[in-house]
Amino acid sequence: MSPSGSAGTLEGTQPVPSDQDVDNENMTGICATVGCYNEADPTVSDWLRSLLPSRKGVLRYARGVFVFTQWLPRYSYGWIVGDCIAGLTVGFVVIPQAMAYALLATLSPEYGLYTSFMGAALYWLFGTSKDIVIGTTAVGSLLVGSVITSIQEQRPDVYTNEEIAKTTSAIAGMILLFIALLRLGWVIEFIPYIPISAFVTAASIIIIATQFPALMGIPGVNTRQAPYLVIINALKGLPNTHTDAAIGLTSVVLLYAIRFFCARMEKRYPARKKTWGIISSMRLTFVMLLYTLISWLVTRGLSKEQRPFRIVGPISRGFNHAGPPRLDGDLILLILPQLPAMLIILVIEHIAIAKSFGRIFGYTVLPSQEMLAQGASNLLGPFVGGYVCTGSFGASAVLSKAGVRTPLAGLFSAVVLVLALYALTAVFYYIPMAALAGLIIHAVADLPTPPKTLHKYWQMSPFELIIWVVGVVVGIFVGLEVSVYVTIALSLVWLLVRQARTKGSFLGQVHVYRISDRGHLSSSKLEADTDDDNGPGSSRNIYLPLDRRRDATNPSVAVEPPYPGVFIFRFTEGLSYINQAQHMARLITQVRANTRPGRVVVDDNTTPTPTSNNNNNKKQHHADENSDRLWSDPLPSPSALQAQSRLPRLRAVVLDCSAVDQIDITAVQGLVDARNTLDKHACTFGSECVEWHFAGLSNRWARKALARAGFGTRKKTVLGIAHGAPGAGPVTRRRAGTHETEEESEMARLAGWSPTYYVVGEAGGGRTGIAVVEGLNRPFFHVDLTGAVDAAVRDAKAMEGKETSHVGVCHEVGCPSEGMSSAAGPLETV
């Protein structure tokens, strides 16, 4: 095997056997017995054709965009009562939340109502969850506020807060729509859960810190500073606390008291659990109305300077801020750098909420379609005055508890919000700012990850807990956007390190028996064969790691190698350019340490012969081996040579590829290099003598790549012996003793390869008989590990028989000096 490759081929690969390389007579015999099947390689044109949509696919895509066309025609009028009650309930809950969260975005309270209205009005057209509510959220509003603050610092008084918020929402909507229409929702799977958990925890702490001065009525605190500075300045300003503290603190206490009381009532009266749940959900609206009434009684007729506490003040009636967003080039360039982190958080938060309710109620949520609903809401929201919106967990939980039946409930919520904008703006004028701050703190206080969950993180994956801590610290002291990028980068690095340093497993086999659920199995059943492959008494081979420290099975079970010289190696986390070097290094090291070199005599001036008792031959052998030894290899001691001589010769490598899908060029080259190295180690005369079996590799492109590198097939080699050669004598033909049945032996003889699998029964198309499961042209690709090991062991036994025959032939007729493989086919005379 030449170590160098020609252009266009992998280095060190051998020419790929073509169909003409297969013995026609043998193939004819197999085809006559079981029928022919040769595995065909996939082509680029096939791949391109698979990407072209069919007419049905186009229609299915169009219907999938507007999901309501699938469920609305089947709408039951019995559902309308549940949707109406749930929608109206959520509408009243959302009103105070939306107004409070708008303040986090440094906007007037009515902008929160605009945002929630558009989400409620549009989601039912595109969404796939009945339980989610799109609107303002604490985290989303905080991100919008940070964008506004950042741009105002760079371009003071050039753009208004409203213009920045609306343009940010429009650009985010365009991006989400683009991703959704291309059905790229799967990209969110690249974002792990830990960065999001760390971000939400850090954001919650920041929100509480920024709302604390408003809760306590402490003036002069810049809430746009770093959170730790806000907390320090707020604590310094406690002596300047105003009457707002009485409103803020009592509102928080009242909110928690109502929640605690309703939770107790739910446990005490399970039959009325739903009623108490709705009452608990309405606590936000109740508290806001209560303190609005108190504020009206206290502050009516007073000027701004005479009021004992701050109130919201004038709110525009209706959709007075409706209009297109300002798509100014400079403004867009200022917004774009801050959009990635915002989009990641908004999308992950929304889909996580939708999927959680989908798991609870047993329906499927489509990420791409949810992103489409988000994109539409964010793109069209600015036209009525809205800003960035996403799924709200608190409002969604209320909607679910209220007994929602379909996404149509959002329309009823939208009606409530419209009524609030036109009929209640005069009432909203008197809402105390401290009460809104208390509402925000109450809403986000449960968002940080609790210590119990952190303890679970530590038990499951300590390093990911470290990433979480880093994310929280960076989010609080540096910035939320930086926290997102840092934690995602650390998670990806951790993933790549685990992939690169993964350790494959060498497997051994254990013969197991199936017992009944009573746990009784007689010894007679262990010895007897059963026709029931799955019933009590049936047996099979299973494969477990030889290194029991990395395995969870019973350590007292003895695991044995399948056969001397046959190694089973499992790729535990796939095979790619990232980890192929690690896998191949371990494979080569382990195999070489547990097998003896195949070359016994290496002498360019004499004919190679098998092991001899001649002392001169032994000395020559040692001298030549030392001359061929690499400078980096240690000189083996006599005791090491003696121990090495007792090791088996390498016969076959079986690769368990059940965890492998795609294989890249680097991985294939690694396999080729490993094959070359082990061939040089094991083969007696420098030819290919080690079989490589692949189990569980189903991807056609991966199989094609390996086949192009010379794996999966081999040429049938024939040893010709001329009559009248010096010293020639009668030739004795012997076959290795195996346990094959006559049918298996005949099939292997016809093929000249490892036996392939055959199934008895229906062969397809209503025909019955024997059908080939695997391609005859690639017999070293196996459906499962059992078949691969059986074939490798069978061939290893056959090799031993052929080597025994070869020793006799060499003594009688002489041996060629090169070009013969110990894995050659049946000896034939010419």
From TrEMBL:
GO CC, alphabetical: membrane
Q: Give the record's membrane topology.
A: Multi-pass membrane protein
Query: Which species is the source of this protein?
Result: Cercophora newfieldiana
Q: Where is the STAS domain?
A: 564-711
Where does the record place the region Disordered? 1-23, 524-546, 598-642, 723-743
The GO molecular function terms of this record are: secondary active sulfate transmembrane transporter activity
Protein name (record): Sulfate transporter family-domain-containing protein
Record carries keyword Zinc-finger: no
Does the keyword Transmembrane belong to this entry? yes
Here the segments flagged for biased composition (Basic and acidic residues) are 622-631
Q: Where is the composition biased (Low complexity)?
A: 605-617
**Highest taxon of the source?**
Eukaryota
The alphabetical list of record keywords is: Membrane, Transmembrane, Transmembrane helix
One Pfam family, short name please? STAS
